[in-house]
Amino acid sequence: MLIIGITGTLGAGKGTVVDYLRTQRAFAYYSVRQFLTEEVQRRGMEPNRDSFVTVANDLRAHHSPSYIVDELYARAAQNGTNAIIESIRATGEVESLRKKGSFVLLAVDADSRTRYERIKLRGSETDHIDYDTFVANEKREFDNPDPNKQNLQACMRMADITLLNNGSLEQLHAEIDRFLGELKDDAPAHHRPSWDEYFMDLCHSVALRATCNRGRSGCVIVKDRQILVSGYVGSPSHLPHCDEVGHLFRKTLHEDGTISTHCVRTVHAEQNAICQAARRGVSLEGGTLYCTMTPCRTCAMLIINCGIKRVVADYKYHAGAESEEMFRQAGVSLDYIHNEVLEYQNK
After folding, report:
1. Which residues are tagged catalytic?
2. I need a surface site. Which of 81, 199, 211, 232 has the fewest CB within 10 A?
């Protein structure tokens, strides 16, 4: 199975490349745009580019930078045939897909005036804009250092090949054929995930069960490369969840005078995993805990007292400095998969 990711500038001809691969090469098709359209409609928002960007960034911030394409990759893997994932726009998406193996990234580009004329002819619901708006939209999506946000420029730099679509349709088709012909066995070598990558992927799968949309976090605790327990953020048993009745906010006044807002309805993923171990009489002594981001202060104290010796977090938490210091003093190793900081919304 070969997965081709499609990235590129607005109106460059990504859809034309997709059509050719679908009709002439029998590739299955999975669209980030369609995925977002369904989510935008579910949220009752207007189906325009602003809504798509807002929803995409929200999903990435609350799950992971690669959440959308991971969902699409899972659908493609279940189908088992060569497939396309269109509209890849964040570096975290590219990094995640490359780890899964059998993936190449194709970028499509053309000069800006040609692309603008193309989107006017296309005339979709997001394309009724003037040239200045077209340029402004592209600039907003083109360069952002946050892995959760859209960054077309960085994605295009990561592409295995770039097709310049300034010529005829026949020339574009010839370039696609040449590109496919250069692939050995129709796929690059499989990337076998490391143990940390493997358990972190499982951690994100567990997080899909989370019931608070401010941060759907997950946790997996292992020892000797065997899973002991798992947990996800959610309300105590038999109590209503945030997804059902909304958040239960409390304000916190900090020493510097700032005020932050926190949802206190839920039990953290790390705490739930530790509770599961306690209920089942499973010792966590010497184990490794995998989590979505740096554990909070309370979770850090519980982790230390459980005898866990290593914590692996996918990202840094914006208020995680105190936990990091506690782990250092207690001799608990703390490693990060990514060095970026994630923040909850509506703090």
Report:
1. 270
2. 81
